[in-house]
């Protein structure tokens, strides 16, 4: 809950920011942060880095688009109070499925398997027109209107994203303290012992993936409302790597850092064009990523934490933070 | 912490920034300035800038300011670029984007910003204007089907091809190109017994090469860039000798300049395109001259992207001139001027819009020829004027045939 | 029937190319447990350098060697400068190599632009000939690919199984700490292995640029195909890489010929299927 409290000052931005800053920077950071949180959660508590989070977010987004108003004439419009739970369930199920496929893989193996799943899904969306409308995907997706107010309007979208982010952080911190959450961490630390205790490791792993799928799905729904569209591009290698970069910048093993990473990433992406040649944006982001990995493997969250600790206790200065 | 400070000061700046002076007209140009398309995307920007340069940067005392933004060929990035231009930079007019899916995305976005006028760059998806069009989205150019007009008749009548196999990438732009070709070709009596849709970015076409039926007269190849190079190389290495018919982006100069063994296949190959670099029309020569003068570092002639961004920006300039640069009525007069605009294009035709705000264009049938020095070039064999989006058909019938897809159109 | 046989032959020749591309990746992983996500970027770098050399000198052989050396050099720098510092921390290495591949891809785009390059083949390899039995034309370069793959495969096998260097590599696969304790200059060996892996990638890049073509994005295509090849075949086993390449190459060509719509997904479906049954790959040793 402590981490969720950090979000309270974030009620201020709507008062001082114009629409562009509120939506394109603040809201977008929150949405990307939620997706990255789903990755950081897995990395922190299960010790698995999954590249399929953008894919699962995409599945939720596609569900919303397929079962909602869109301008491509594909799908079955359903009321949003059905399509949203449906999207979340599908995201959780897809997460569980990814977990089931990758359940016996750790570390780099899990990375490669989830990456392959993500890429397979990307190609599938490009080729399938019945459910995914191929290359072009869905456009004209509208967020629901409640009492005449569209959730896509800058302020409502920001507040909803903020609420979801807070809820997601609270869920994560509650989940990891639950018996199942503790089992998951036990699986991370000593899968052999968990097995010896007669507990199956499959269930905790699959549950952890399903839970992270739920988080990614929530991010995916917000994202499709924000973009008002979803297409093969939304689940390609670009978004897959973006989410990874955000998590790493914030600190792969610090769930709250996902939001720090998202803010830095969005600011870089939006304003790098004003500072450097837009063409070299990828070099810039690559260098930032490399520096973080080399200098501060704990990410910015850890870095800030260490600096604060150093300020408070100057005598422990000599302890390296890296 | 520096980053936060920087963000905070930027914040302060944007809060204090005075609203743009009423005399300024801000034009945001969206093109692909990163990744593999960067060089071509940059040429689109040149086209838009050229149109603004011709006005001297002001219209009736109103300064024209151009702000460029990059997308990365994905619809999401085009939408983000447009939002930044509108919400942060406060542009009045957007010119762009470059590619088809981006165009569809901006068409949809334009409905959320009725106070901004969108003029398409070079994107050529059919549905951007044909179905579900948007009142403030204009395309002073054609779609992928219009860009093939003339080729089907030329292939059937002049080349004598009765049966053609199609090899094309599996997404909307090639579907539209195939429609443009097949509409004429099938109507003339030609047959297309088989279509091969290959994933974009496919490298190894060898199995497609051997699956091509032996009894067709020619191949219609709608592949772009590396895909075209790969297919043509592998087809010729495998001993393929059917004549080629090209799509609008298949036989460009870079392919003709490459050293591949497939070049002998291409001599005489017809293709459809709205832009021919060395067209010898007077207007085009003048356009090329002013392009090279303004941009010595540009290409030797304006590309299809420079040409199309130019026409859109030109239309905006002409319409602005008609309303004395005054957009204060929510663009109403400006849009009325755009709707009624007619002007002479760089290809010598008369540009005007149909009721969906899509351009009525000139199109070229070109053929590959061997220059005296042995290099290859494209030359114009036929100019088709006044090509509309319905390809000259009845509107109801045209719409009834449904959106293009892998199986539509069909004439096996 | 003829089509089926030709498609099979296409699958075999494509498999040869995939094997060439994946061999360096597999080698590095086998010894060092490093997933080198910059492998595709090394391959593309080799291809570009090879093109530049062939264009300047007209010698295809020089191009292949030059491309290989450039990528070997880059690989050695990557290992010595970055990845070597985090030896043992596989996740960090993977992330760092992703960062490196992003930077390399962007810098190569800057230098070589977005054009498609095709390396000009020597006369002996250019063009095609009529195949007996099938009676169709077939590209010489594709037939030559199978020869290259055989040479590289046998060469690697010989290096690993029959030389002292190979003995050290095999020892490293089994017990790195022991090797270190015995005073083996393991860090230098790691840099060498990385250079060798880069060399293989770079040469594969030139060959790929000759048989097909290279352009921005080629790096990711070959990285993905290499990943799938080694995952399916079994990590770090040369035989596994060969088997994986065969499966992937054949699946891709059958897919393209008989089920073009979902052909691209086949490859990945095979991988998921293999993993569901054997997480360590067909010929891989069980994970710890």
Could you describe the 3D structure shown?
Chain A is an all-alpha fold and 322 residues long. Helix content of chain A is 68%, strand content 2%. In chain A, strands 1-4 form a two-stranded antiparallel ribbon. Chain A has a two-stranded antiparallel sheet with strand order 2-3. In chain A, helix 5 packs across helix 10 (202-227), helix 7 runs antiparallel to helix 10 (202-227) and helix 8 (179-189) packs across helix 10. The longest helix of chain A is centred in the first third of the chain and has 28 residues, at 19-46. The model of chain A is unreliable at 316-322 (pLDDT under 50). Chain B has 412 residues and is of the alpha/beta class. Chain B folds into 2 domains: 21-142 and 280-361, Response regulator (Rossmann fold); 146-273 and 371-400, 3-Layer(aba) Sandwich (Rossmann fold). Chain B contains 14 helices and 15 strands. Chain B has helices at residues 2-16, 38-54, 75-88, 100-110, 151-158, 172-188, 206-211, 225-237, 253-257, 263-266, 282-294, 304-322, 332-340, 395-400, and strands at residues 25-32, 58-59, 62-71, 93-95, 117-119, 137-138, 164-169, 195-198, 218-222, 244-246, 270-273, 343-344, 350-353, 359-370, 376-387. In chain B, the strands form 3 sheets. Chain B has a 6-stranded mixed β-sheet. In chain B, strands 11, 12, 13, 14 and 15 form a 5-stranded antiparallel β-sheet that branches. A 4-stranded parallel β-sheet of chain B has the order 8-7-9-10, with helices on one face. Chain B starts with a helix and ends in a 12-residue tail after the last helix. Chain C has 288 residues and is mainly alpha-helical. Chain C has a domain at 20-215. Chain C is built from 11 helices and 2 strands; from the N terminus they run H-H-H-H-E-E-H-H-H-H-H-H-H. In chain C, a hairpin with a 6-residue loop joins strand 1 (128-130) and strand 2. In chain C, helix 10 runs antiparallel to helix 11. The longest helix of chain C is centred in the N-terminal third of the chain and has 31 residues, at 2-32. The chains are: A mainly alpha (322), B alpha/beta (412), C mainly alpha (288). The A-C interface holds A 49, 101-102, 104-109, 111-113, 115-117, 119-120, 123-124, 126-128, 237, 241, 244, 248, 252, 279-280, 282-283, 285-287, 289-290, 293-294, 297 and C 33, 35, 82, 85-86, 89-92, 94-96, 98-100, 102-103, 105-107, 110, 220, 224, 227-228, 231, 235, 261-262, 264-265, 268-269, 271-272, 275-276, 279, 287.
């Amino acid at each position: 809950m402590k981490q969720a409290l950090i979000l309270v000052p974030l009620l201020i931005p709507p008062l001082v920011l114009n629409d562009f800053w509120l939506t394109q920077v603040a809201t977008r950071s929150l949405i990307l942060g939620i997706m990255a949180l789903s990755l950081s959660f897995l990395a922190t508590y299960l010790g698995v880095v999954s590249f399929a989070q953008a894919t699962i977010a995409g599945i939720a987004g596609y569900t919303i688009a397929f079962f909602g108003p869109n301008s491509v004439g594909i799908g079955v419009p359903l009321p949003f109070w059905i399509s949203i739970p449906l999207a979340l369930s599908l995201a959780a199920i897809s997460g569980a499925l990814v977990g089931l496929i990758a359940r016996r893989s750790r570390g780099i193996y899990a990375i490669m398997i989830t990456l392959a799943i993500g890429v397979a899904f990307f190609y599938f969306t490009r080729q399938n027109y019945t459910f995914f409308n191929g290359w072009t995907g869905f456009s004209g997706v509208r967020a629901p209107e409640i009492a005449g107010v569209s959730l896509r309007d800058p302020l409502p979208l920001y507040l909803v994203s903020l609420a979801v982010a807070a809820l997601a952080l609270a869920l994560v911190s509650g989940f990891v303290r639950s018996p199942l959450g503790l089992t998951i961490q036990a699986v991370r630390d000593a899968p052999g012992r968990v097995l010896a205790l007669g507990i199956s490791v499959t269930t905790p792993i699959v549950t952890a993936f399903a839970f992270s799928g739920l988080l990614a799905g929530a991010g995916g729904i917000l994202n499709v409302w924000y973009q008002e569209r979803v297409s093969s591009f939304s689940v390609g290698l670009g978004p897959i790597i973006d989410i990874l970069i955000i998590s790493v910048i914030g600190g792969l093993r610090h769930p709250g850092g996902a939001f720090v990473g998202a803010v830095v990433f969005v600011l870089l992406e939006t304003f790098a064009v004003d500072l450097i040649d837009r063409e070299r944006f990828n070099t810039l982001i690559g260098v930032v990523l490399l520096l973080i990995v080399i200098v501060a493997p704990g990410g910015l969250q850890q870095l800030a934490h260490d600096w604060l600790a150093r300020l408070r206790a100057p005598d422990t200065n000599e302890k390296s933070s890296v | 912490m520096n980053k936060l400070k920087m963000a905070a000061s930027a914040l302060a700046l944007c809060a204090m920034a005075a609203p743009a002076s009423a005399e300024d007209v801000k034009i945001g140009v969206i093109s692909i300035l990163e990744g593999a398309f960067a060089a071509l995307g940059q040429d689109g920007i040149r086209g838009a800038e050229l149109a603004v340069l011709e006005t001297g940067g002001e219209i009736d005392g109103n300064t024209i300011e151009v702000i460029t933004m990059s997308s990365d060929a994905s619809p999401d990035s085009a939408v983000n670029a447009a939002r930044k231009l509108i919400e942060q930079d406060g542009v009045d007019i957007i010119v762009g984007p470059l590619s088809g899916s981006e165009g569809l995305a901006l068409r949809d976005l334009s409905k959320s910003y009725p106070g901004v006028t969108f003029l398409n760059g070079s994107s050529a998806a059919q549905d951007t204007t044909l179905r579900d069009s948007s009142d403030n989205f204009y395309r002073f150019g054609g779609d992928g089907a219009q860009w093939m007009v003339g080729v089907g008749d030329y292939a059937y009548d002049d080349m004598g091809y009765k049966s053609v196999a199609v090899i094309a990438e599996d997404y909307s732009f090639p579907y539209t190109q195939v429609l443009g070709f097949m509409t004429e070709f099938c109507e003339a009596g030609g047959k297309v017994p088989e279509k091969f849709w290959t994933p974009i970015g496919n490298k190894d076409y060898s199995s497609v090469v051997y699956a091509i039926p032996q009894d067709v007269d020619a191949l219609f190849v709608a592949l772009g860039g590396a895909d075209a190079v790969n297919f043509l190389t592998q087809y010729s290495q495998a001993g393929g000798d059917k004549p080629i018919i090209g799509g609008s982006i298949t036989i460009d100069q870079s392919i003709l300049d490459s050293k591949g063994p497939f070049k002998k296949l291409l001599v005489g190959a017809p293709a459809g395109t709205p832009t021919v670099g060395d067209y010898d029309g007077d207007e085009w020569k003048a356009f090329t001259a002013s392009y090279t003068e303004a941009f010595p570092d540009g290409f030797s002639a304006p590309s299809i992207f420079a040409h199309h961004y130019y026409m859109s920006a030109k239309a905006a300039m002409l319409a602005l001139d008609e309303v004395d640069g005054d957009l204060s009525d929510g663009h109403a007069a400006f849009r009325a001027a755009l709707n009624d605009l007619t002007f002479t294009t760089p290809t010598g035709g008369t540009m005007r819009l149909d009721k969906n705000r899509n351009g009525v264009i000139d199109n070229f049938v070109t053929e590959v020829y061997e220059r005296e020095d042995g290099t290859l070039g494209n030359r114009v064999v036929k100019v088709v004027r006044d090509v509309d989006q319905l390809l000259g058909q009845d509107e109801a019938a045209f719409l009834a045939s449904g959106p293009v897809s892998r199986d539509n159109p069909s004439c096996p | 029937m003829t089509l089926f046989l030709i498609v099979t032959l296409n699958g075999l020749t494509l498999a040869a190319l995939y094997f060439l591309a994946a061999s360096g990746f597999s080698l590095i992983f086998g010894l060092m447990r490093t997933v080198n996500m910059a492998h595709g970027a090394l391959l593309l770098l080799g291809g570009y350098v090879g093109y530049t050399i062939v264009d300047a000198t007209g010698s295809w052989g020089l191009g292949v060697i030059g491309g290989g050396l450039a990528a070997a050099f880059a690989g050695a720098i990557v290992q010595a400068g970055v990845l070597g510092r985090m030896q043992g921390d596989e996740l960090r290495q993977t992330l760092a190599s992703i960062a490196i591949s992003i930077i390399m891809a962007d810098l190569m785009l800057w230098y070589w632009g977005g054009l498609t390059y095709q390396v000009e083949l020597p006369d002996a390899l250019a063009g095609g000939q009529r195949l007996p039995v099938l009676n169709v034309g077939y590209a010489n370069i594709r037939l030559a690919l199978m020869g290259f793959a055989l040479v590289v495969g046998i060469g690697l096998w010989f290096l690993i199984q029959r030389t002292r260097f190979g003995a050290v590599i095999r020892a490293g696969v089994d017990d790195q700490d022991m090797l270190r304790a015995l005073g083996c200059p393991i860090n230098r060996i790691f840099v060498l292995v990385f250079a060798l892996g880069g060399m293989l990638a770079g040469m594969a890049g030139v060959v790929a640029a000759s048989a097909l073509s290279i352009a921005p994005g080629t790096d990711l295509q070959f990285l993905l195909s290499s990943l799938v090849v080694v995952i399916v075949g079994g990590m770090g086993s040369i035989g596994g890489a060969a088997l994986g390449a065969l499966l992937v190459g054949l699946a891709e060509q059958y897919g393209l010929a008989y089920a073009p719509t979902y052909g691209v997904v086949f490859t990945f479906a095979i991988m998921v299927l293999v993993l569901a049954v054997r997480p360590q790959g067909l010929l891989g040793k069980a994970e710890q």
